[in-house]
Every structure is written in C-alpha cells, then in structure tokens.
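2.7 Reproducibility. Because tokenized structures are sensitive to small changes in the input, we list the exact sequence used for ATP-binding protein, including any N-terminal residues retained from the expression construct. No trimming or masking was applied before prediction.
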Amino acid sequence: MDSTVSDATGVTPLVAGFAEPDEDLKAWQRERDRAPVATKIVVAGGFGVGKTTLVTTVSEITPLQTEALMTEASEGTDDLSATPGKLTTTVAMDYGRITLDDDLVLYLFGTPGQQRFWFMWDDLVRGAIGAVVLADTRRLKDCFPALDYFESCGLPYVVAVNHFDDSELFEPEDVREALTIPPHIPVMIMDARRRISVIETLLALVGHALDETPEQSPAP
Ligand SMILES: Nc1nc2c(ncn2[C@@H]2O[C@H](COP(=O)(O)OP(=O)(O)OP(=O)(O)O)[C@@H](O)[C@H]2O)c(=O)[nH]1
Ligand SMILES: [Mg+2]
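Resulting structure tokens (single pass, no recycling of outputs):
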C-alpha cells in the first residue's frame, strides 16, 4: 500500500461550513438564534465493506477522505475478492456531515478498515453517540472486531448490511441470528450507495442511541 496520504480527494477544512457557498448553508448556519443538535457518529466495519462510500453518499459537504492507493504490497493481507474494483483504502478516517430535520446535525466519522489501523479507533469514537457497523454477508466475520469493540466500550450501535448486487439477499433476522445480535439492537439491510437507504440507517442509529441513553432529569 502507498504510504502517502496526500493523494486524498476532495479535502476540505475540518471546520464545517467554512468554505460553503451561501446557497448551501443550512438554516442552523444562517440564523444565529438557532442552536443545532450536533452529534458524532462513527461508521465502522471490516475492510472494503463500504464505509467511505456511505459517508460520501450522504455528506452535504465535500467529504474529507484519506484514501491511499493500494499496491501489490498489500496482496495476501487485504482480501479484495468481494470488491475487485477497489483501488484505494482509508488510512486515517472519512469525515462528512449531514443535517436531518433542519437542525439535527450528524458528523460522520468513517474508520479505516485495515487491521493495522485499528489503533486509531479509540480516538475516533471519543464523544460519539453511536456507531453504524457495516457488514457484508459474504464476509460476515469481518465485522466481529467492530461488534466486539462497541459491545465492550458500551457505545450504542446498529448493524447495517451493505448489500452488494452480486451477493445473496438475506433477511435482517437471518443476519441477527448469524451474528448473535441481541434483539434490542436494530439490524438493517441497506445500500451504502443510496442516500435514502443511508439516511434510514442513520435515523435508526439516532433512535437507538436515544433509547439507550438514560434520560437526564432537569436540574432542580
Ligand atoms: N456493488 C456495490 N459496491 C459497493 C457498495 N458499497 C461500496 N461498494 C464498492 O465497494 C468498494 C469498497 O468501498 P469503500 O467505500 O472504499 O469501502 P471501505 O469500507 O471504506 O474500505 P476501507 O476503508 O479500505 O476499509 C468500492 O469499490 C465501492 O465502489 C455497494 O453497496 N454495492
Ligand atoms: Mg474507507
């Protein structure tokens, strides 16, 4: 794999909204008396499952990407059999933003999939309200490390099967059983290339995270 990250595409400043033309501004950016609810969401899963695709599909700003070209050096380490067209891999993170319902702002952080970059997860999940664990039914075991990670740190998560056209279509309950996902955790079948499908997944996560978060009683 190439060691440089400098060939990232579409890099924008991390300050959301900084470089956006006026007509792209959201209501919460134009009106100073609006305080948006800002949340951080992590998109995790195995190598090549579609994390960067998901963030890119829904981001309303040019997503920050840290893609590096894959070379022969990663042969034998990275299994490209399910995604033969894949030329790059994420070496740090993906970052995007989507505004839902006018003032619920989700900041999306995609993790790198390759095992050698997992040390970054602890930093990436800090402050997140929850995570989407992407799975590919042809390589279900690849999502186990992400499931274990979020189970052990207690971060709410949903399981989203990114359905690839050439793979068999399973029911969510079959996937739940195969992965032994507890009944209260949403499992959905989606397509990381379809905006509406990604939004449904994100809404399921926000709802689940709200259910899992103990209500705070107002200060006396
Ligand atoms: N057919 C199909 N292809 C997809 C889908 N999602 C992603 N792809 C393709 O699968 C490949 C992997 O996508 P990425 O989004 O780079 O995967 P990733 O999880 O970010 O990969 P890493 O960061 O390297 O772990 C790319 O070639 C995508 O075009 C999908 O839903 N259906
Ligand atoms: Mg990626």
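The CA atoms of residues 99 and 105 lie 4 Å apart.
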